[in-house]
Amino acid sequence: MLLNYAIMTGLTSGALYALIAVGIVLVYKSTKVINLAHGDLVMVCGFLAYAFHVQLGLSYFLAFLLAVACGFVIGLVVYQIALRPLMKSSVANVLIATMALSFIFKGVARFFWGGIGDYIPFPPIASPEPMNLGDVMVLPQQLFILAGSIVLMLAFAVFFKSTPLGKWMRATADNVKAAKLVGIQTERIYLLSFGIGAAIAGVAAVLMAPLTLLYPDMGFSLFLKAFAAAVLGGLDSILGAVLGGVLVGLVETLAATYIHSSFQDVSSFVVIMFVLIFMPTGILGSRGVRRV
Q1: N or C end of the chain, less CB within 10 A?
Q2: Distance (Å, whole) CA 144 – CA 141
């Protein structure tokens, strides 16, 4: 029974890491930029959902839509104002800019919702009482996370395969010069990539918030685990990000259950080191892709 519970918890955590990793990979595929502030985008969207749902009294579903929409707009603004002027400069400049954005997001969250050490609970969408699923006790919110993650992944699969915008994004990710030659406006693709990536962060934030406590410094930990998932799956593979997220979630939960709870966070570093040493392109990453 303990193993089943650990697997269920790992799948729930892995689904969240997969969502965040998909946003990281989506931006990287299009722009070759690792957004170090992506975890803090999740944090900000979580606090925005809290403001809409708890402080303003809006329904959970409406707060969800508004938080995702705000995430999309923040992603657009971040790229247009902070990152676009640096895109033609060195990668180091862009990385430093995303690091600065991370601190800015933390500062904004502390100003509006509390400082260091303040942890804010988010009410669950369903009853907090656990329920039996076979031999495993699960929380209804865990089922919402799994269901929401699966629906979003399927929607993205259809989006990239069947819609013109999805095909343009794939073409830009595969070869920017060729995309420009056939008339694709790659600057708009970069802009939309950041917006959609931030919107996915909003989805992850709203699904995650009822199971965790919101606090301004949660972004780095989320980014680290999602980045481990992206590296494990392959930084240029969205399917790899999903697979990597599930594996990272299972590894950290099983390590915490059967070794020691302190290994829960350390496991992400171990995953990153293992992948960089033995399989630097990840499980499903393209061979020969430059890693940052």
Answers
A1: N
A2: 5
